[in-house]
Write a structure and sequence with these properties.
Blueprint: E1 2-6, E2 17-22, E3 29-30, E4 35-40, E5 45-49, E6 54-59, E7 66-67, E8 72-78, H1 108-117, H2 135-141, H3 184-199, E9 202-210, H4 212-228, H5 237-250, E10 256-259, E11 262-265, E12 271-273, E13 275-277, E14 280-282, E15 285-286, H6 294-309, E16 323-327, E17 346-350, E18 353-360, E19 363-377, H7 383-398, H8 401-405
Parallel strand pairs: 12-16, 16-17
Antiparallel strand pairs: 1-8, 2-4, 2-7, 3-6, 4-5, 6-8, 9-19, 10-11, 12-15, 13-14, 17-19, 18-19
């Protein structure tokens, strides 16, 4: 049976992609659901998998080719007697959220795991955009069962990021230059950074926060927290997300965005958490963070971090957001100016915790201190409100009971 392998259906926010790497060659035996090719977009790498046992007969588009939804990538022949996976009407195994005739909307990864685990998708509540069922929804539907993930990516699976040094050492005295194409994701990051500088009136205000009370709470309860919450680690990010949520409620303009001549005020707090990967910075979003406990926040952030490094985040998870938090402190940064994540109006930057001498009640004491930075769009947020917003976060971190009491 001959099957056309086509480009995945891109979400509305993505117009095109690039063929990053072919994993299989014509004539090479392929098992059903094995990855055939990676298609890189400016946010994620989409995996196109084999619809059945068989082999590629012809690769029509080489690596680094720019492709659009539905472009014919290759031709595939199914082995005799091999079962063919259900694919979209466009006829091709895709992993990007193509439309399906099934009564439920689910990502291909979710469908694959559901089939392997025997989960009825009609019984799974979707948490993705428009109720879409994600892989995590399927895994979470069966507590205690680990996700059956796709094969782990290896360094050669994704186009090498620009600027990475060659593996082989040059001969002594040899002056090496190496030119590689910028990845689509890196190019998009560069484009958005320039866009921010040209289209916003970005300012940054700074403050410092005494971390000793939060540090004491963490030290006192981290073991019990992990035991009660199935191994979830108690970090600092959960406190900062909860403090940000409360501050955003008090200063709704910081949670707003500009759309043309209108200001859009969001009645929810979707908090983006910046995660650094080898391919660049990605910002998965904690949906409705106001409804999440600290344990749920820490669990989701840990999951985001692992899947970001494995390139397993979905488009739905990196779309939207009303406010962003970035933590340069994990890399040792003492102070920085975070750049806005448009169309959001503000971003909070956390930094390294360092013990410093401070004056408290007329006495010099040593405290673990952190510098905070809030970058904001001055077109929407006045300096007074930006300062008061950052002070509100500072006070809640310095007195964590205020987060619980919402005062």
């Amino acid at each position: 049976m001959n099957i056309d392998i086509v480009t995945p259906t891109f979400p509305e926010s993505i117009q095109e992609g690039t063929i990053a790497k072919w994993h299989k060659r014509p004539g090479e035996a392929v098992a059903r659901d094995q990855v055939l090719v990676d298609v890189e977009t400016d946010k994620v790498v989409l995996e196109v998998v084999a619809p059945a046992d068989g082999s590629l007969t012809e690769i029509l588009l080489p690596e680094q080719t720019i492709v659009h939804t539905g472009d014919l990538l290759a031709r595939f022949v199914a082995a005799a007697g091999g079962a063919v996976a259900t694919v979209p009407a466009a006829s091709g195994a895709v992993t990007s959220g193509a439309a399906s005739a099934a009564p439920v909307t689910a990502s291909p990864a979710a469908r694959k795991i559901a089939a392997e685990q025997g989960v009825d998708l009609n019984r799974v509540a979707g948490t993705g955009r428009d109720g879409r069922i994600t892989k995590e929804d399927v895994v979470g539907h069966r507590p205690g069962v680990a996700a059956v993930s796709a094969p782990q990516p290896t360094p050669e699976r994704i186009a090498e990021p620009a600027g990475r040094a060659p593996e082989t050492a040059p001969a002594r005295g040899e002056r090496i230059e190496r030119r590689v194409p910028m990845t689509r994701m890196r190019a998009r990051i560069a484009e958005r950074l320039l866009e921010v500088t040209h289209t916003t009136a970005m300012l940054t205000t700074f403050n410092e926060v005494d971390m000793h009370r939060v540090t004491d709470v963490r030290a006192q309860y981290k073991d019990e927290f992990a035991r009660v919450h199935n191994g979830v680690r108690l970090g600092f990010m959960g406190f900062f997300v909860k403090a940000s949520v409360e501050a955003l409620k008090r200063f709704p303009q910081v949670n707003a965005s500009i759309d043309g001549n209108d200001v859009v005020y969001h009645g929810y707090q979707d908090i983006g958490v910046a995660v650094a990967t080898d391919r660049g910075l990605v910002v998965p979003v904690l949906r409705s963070a106001e409804n999440l406990s600290i344990a749920e926040i820490e669990s989701k952030i840990a999951d985001f971090g692992m899947r970001a490094r494995d390139n397993k985040l979905t488009m739905e998870e990196m779309t939207g957001g009303t406010f962003t938090i970035t933590n340069g402190g994990v890399f040792g940064s003492m102070l920085s100016t975070p750049i806005l994540n448009p169309p959001q109006a503000a971003i909070l930057g956390m930094h390294a915790i360092k013990e410093r001498a401070v004056v408290e009640n007329g006495q010099v004491v040593v405290r673990p201190m952190m510098y905070l930075a809030l970058s904001y769009d001055h077109r929407l947020i006045d300096g007074r409100d930006a300062v008061r917003f950052l002070v509100a976060i500072k006070e809640m971190i310095e007195y964590p009971a205020k987060i619980l009491l919402q005062i």
